[in-house]
Amino acid sequence: MTDVSIRIEQVKRVGTGLALLVFPPMLLVGFLLHPDITSLEMVTEAEAWAGEFRGNFLFHFGHVLVMFVAPLAILVGVRCMRFATGSGAWMIFTGGVLGVFGAFILAVDKGALTLVLTAFDTLPEGTFEQIYPALQVMLERAGWLWIVYLLALLPVGFIVQAIGLAKAGIIGKGQAALIVIGMATLFVGDIEIITAAGAVLMCFGYVPMGMRELRGELGTAL
Questions:
Q1: Does residue 220 fall inside a structural domain?
Q2: In a domain, 143, yes or no
Q3: How far apart are CA 143 and CA 146, in angstroms?
Q4: The dihedral sign for the CA sequence 43, 140, 29, 119
Q5: Neighbour count for residue 59 (Cβ, 10 Å)
Q6: Residue 55, number of CB atoms within 10 A of its CB
Q7: Quick check: 65 and 107 in contact, CB under 8 A?
C-alpha cells in the first residue's frame, strides 16, 4: 500500500471506531431526555403529544440527537460489511444493507416528525391549538408517512449483521447477544424506558468494537 492509501485507511478506521464508540451513547441520551420516561403507554392523541413537546427544549434536543445517529449507523453498517468473507458473509453483507437503509429511514423519521415539531413550537398559543388535526394525522402516520414504518429495517439489519460477525469470529457470541437484544428493544416503538435499557446493552456491545477498531484490531481473530 502507498502512504496515501495507508493514511486513507487510517482515517476510515478512526472514523469507524469513533462512530462505534459514540452512536450507542447518543441513542441512550436521546431516549433518557424524553419526558415521562417511565411511562409504558404510547402517545396516541395530539393533545397529549403537544403536552410533551410544547416548549420542551430537551424533548427536541433528544430527538435531534437521535437523528444524528443515522449517519454514524450508516458508517458502521458499511464498514462492517468489509468482513463479509467466509462464515457469516451473507449475513454481514445483507444485514449491513438492511441496517443502512433503516438508518436512512431514521433520518427521514426524525426529519418529518421532529424538526417539523420545532417549527410548530414557535406558534403562539391561540394558533398552536389549531394545528391539533395536523398533529393527529402525523401521529397516525397518515399519507406517505407510512414509509417511516420501514425504520424496523434498522434493528433487523444490525441484528443480522451482529450474528454474522459472531459467526465469522469478528466479535464474541456474548457481545453479539448484547447487540441483538439491545437492537430488538427498538421494535417496541416510543416506550423510552425499554429502548433506553436496550441502548445500554448496545453500548456494551458496540463500544468494545470501537476500541478494537481504533487499535486496528477489529477483524482479527478473538
A1: no
A2: yes
A3: 7
A4: negative
A5: 19
A6: 9
A7: no
Could you tell me the residue range of the domain that residue 20 belongs to? 3-214
| Structural domains counted in the chain | 1
Q: Is 29 a member of any domain? A: yes
Are 33 and 61 spatial neighbours (Cβ–Cβ below 8 Å)?
yes
pLDDT of residue 162: 96
Type of residue at 81: M
| Alpha helix (H) residue ranges in 68-188 | 69-80, 89-110, 116-120, 125-128, 132-139, 153-167, 173-184
pLDDT at residue 35 is higher than 90:
no
Alpha-carbon dihedral sign for residues 5, 10, 13, 15: negative
Looking at this protein, which amino acid is placed at residue 73? A
- Give the pTM: 0.92
Query: 192-214 and 173-184 are packed helices; what angle lies between their axes, rounded to 10 degrees?
Result: 140
Record the cell numbers describing residue 83, joined without a space: 468482513
pLDDT of res. 222:
55
